[in-house]
Amino acid sequence: MPTADEPGKPHERPVLEPIRVLRPRNTDALAALFREMTELTGDPENAEGYESVPLPRPEARTREIPPVPPNPPVPPIPPVPPVRRPGGSGIRRGAVAAGAVLAAALVGFGCALLLPDGGRESTDRTLPAAPPTAAAPQAGPDGSGTLREGAAGPEVTDLQQRLRRIPNVYDDGATDGRYGPVLTEAVARFQLWYGIRGDESGVYGDDTRRDLESRTG
After folding, report:
1. What pLDDT is recorded for position 91?
2. pLDDT tens across 121-155, in order?
3. Quick one: which of 61, 80, 102, 191 is 20 to 30 A from 117 by CA?
4. What topology does CATH give the domain 154-216?
5. Domain boundaries defined on the chain
6. 3 state DSSP class of 147
């Protein structure tokens, strides 16, 4: 380790002077750059590897745009007429008719309550009983002469006799003139086998009658 100098003795170490290091500059690249710039700025036609390009005129790249025509005037929108609900008068008429029927029913009920028992008994005694009538063929949606289960009479007897002439439809069936479940099944079987679709299944309507009469003569 270095020791401290004793006091009163001169300093015997050599004095260190600053050392300056010089490095030569590379001027070859800089001289080449200056030479290239001089050739470009001096005479471009003599410079190697370059050619002059004519610049386009500004007038050639511009074009005048035609003016935009004005928009045609928009016609005014006609006013929308008010929408009327259909059937308004019919609804009002129906309500008035229903009210009138209800009022008449209430008046009749009140008059019936005010009648004494004696008057009612006398009315029942004086009115004759209606005579029993024979069952007539019921009118259905298939026609005026439609026969269905529950009907009775000579027309049902004629239907039973005609069905017995068709093989395997109403064999040994009754001809008592009553339209029962057995006859309903026979009519439905005849309709199915012979492709009759105009009438309801098991109902003797116009289409079934016409086809059966044409087959039985």
Report:
1. 66
2. 444 555 556 554 544 444 444 445 799 999 999 99
3. 102
4. Muramoyl-pentapeptide Carboxypeptidase; domain 1 (1.10.101)
5. 154-216
6. strand
